Amino acid sequence: MNLEASPRHLQLRDMLFRRWKTGGLKAGDRIESQNEIVRFCDFSLITVVKTLKDLESEGVIRRQVGKGSFLVATPWAEAHRRIGFFYNRDIVGGGIFDNAFYTRLVMAFEKGIVSAGHEFVMGSFTDARMPVGMWDALDAVVLTGFTRETRLEALADTTSQVSLIDASLDGSRFHTYRLDYGPAFAAMFAALGGARLKFLYLDSEIGSNEQAARLAAFRAAAAGAPAPQAIEIVAVNQEIDVGNTGALRSAVERVRPDVVCGHVHESWRPLIRAISPAARIYPFLLDQKGPGFVVDSAPWMAEILPTIEANLADRQRPPATHSFAARFQA
């Protein structure tokens, strides 16, 4: 429906539903009086009265003289939920399924959502634009891939419950599910013993809070290593400019590292091996065998999905940050 072309009372109905959904109102909660509605919206008293009468006749609200009006039903909420996963396509080269980590993340998230009897929807956004209209049709959206260039204004406009996964923003406006690589980095240094080794950490050129947090965690773990280590850091683009390996090649040739770790794209292994055949390579992994910093999706989803459902049941719960520790696999 084109909302602007629809009758005024239907426009008001939609606006009230959006307001009550965003506010997390449940059956039995008090809603605004007709005079309060007139004060905060651009609708006449006649339109407000008609809309409230319609909602009362439909069994959505109950009006009691002297006590106020209360929600009886929440048409926008169902036991069957529609939950979306949206990624930033500006930073995922040829699409999310060209990225092994995100591919496995989507598959694990979808499996959990569908197994719980809900509907899974996947889509994307860009640094400049977010599909708020589509999000409004969903109960919750889980977003990933924020950069320093991502415009965030639209996040405040959607009625859908917003959560962030493997991403974070300054402040505490949204439920956030982060990955903590500190324990995995520390375990790597401990496993490699007291020898002094040359480490080349591949940092991401794509600036974000998560990129900065991983680099800080690596530096902290290196500072606490059993023995002083030789640390070099080089910025790479592991997403949208994978073929540009000039900086990587130069760093590997200069450092001749014993260990290459961090944002290692799978296609870079031959280049690293050709220059430093004995180098140990530890990338970020999800549900994969082989050396690296591994995130096990099953226990991670077992923490995330019940929290999303609980937050949908009570949308007035304050936002919280949840951290899940990766592990080191030698």
Primary descriptors:
single chain; 330 residues; alpha/beta; Arc Repressor Mutant, subunit A; Rossmann fold; 3 domains; 6-stranded parallel β-sheet; 6-stranded mixed β-sheet; 35% helix; 23% strand; elongated
Please provide a written account of the structure.
It is a single chain. The chain is α/β, with parallel strands linked by helices. It has three domains: 3-71, Arc Repressor Mutant, subunit A (Orthogonal Bundle); 82-179 and 297-329, 3-Layer(aba) Sandwich (Rossmann fold), CATH 3.40.50.2300; 182-294, Response regulator (Rossmann fold, 3-Layer(aba) Sandwich). It has ten helices and 15 strands. It has helices spanning 8-22, 34-40, 45-57, 100-115, 132-136, 182-191, 209-223, 246-255, 269-275, 297-313, and strands at residues 30-31, 61-64, 68-71, 82-88, 119-125, 140-144, 161-165, 175-180, 198-204, 230-236, 259-262, 280-286, 292-295, 321-325, 327-329. The strands form three sheets. It has a six-stranded parallel beta sheet with strand order 5-4-6-7-8-14, with helices on both faces. A six-stranded mixed beta sheet has the order 10-9-11-12-13-15, sandwiched between helices. The longest helix has 17 residues, at 297-313.
List the helices and strands and how they pair.
Blueprint lengths: L7 H15 L7 E2 L2 H7 L4 H13 L3 E4 L3 E4 L10 E7 L11 H16 L3 E7 L6 H5 L3 E5 L16 E5 L9 E6 L1 H10 L6 E7 L4 H15 L6 E7 L9 H10 L3 E4 L6 H7 L4 E7 L5 E4 L1 H17 L7 E5 L1 E3 L1
Parallel strand pairs: 4-5, 4-6, 6-7, 7-8, 8-14, 9-10, 9-11, 11-12, 12-13
Antiparallel strand pairs: 1-3, 2-3, 13-15
Keywords: DNA-binding, Transcription, Transcription regulation
InterPro entries: Tscrpt_reg_HTH_GntR, WH-like_DNA-bd_sf, WH_DNA-bd_sf
GO molecular function: DNA binding; DNA-binding transcription factor activity
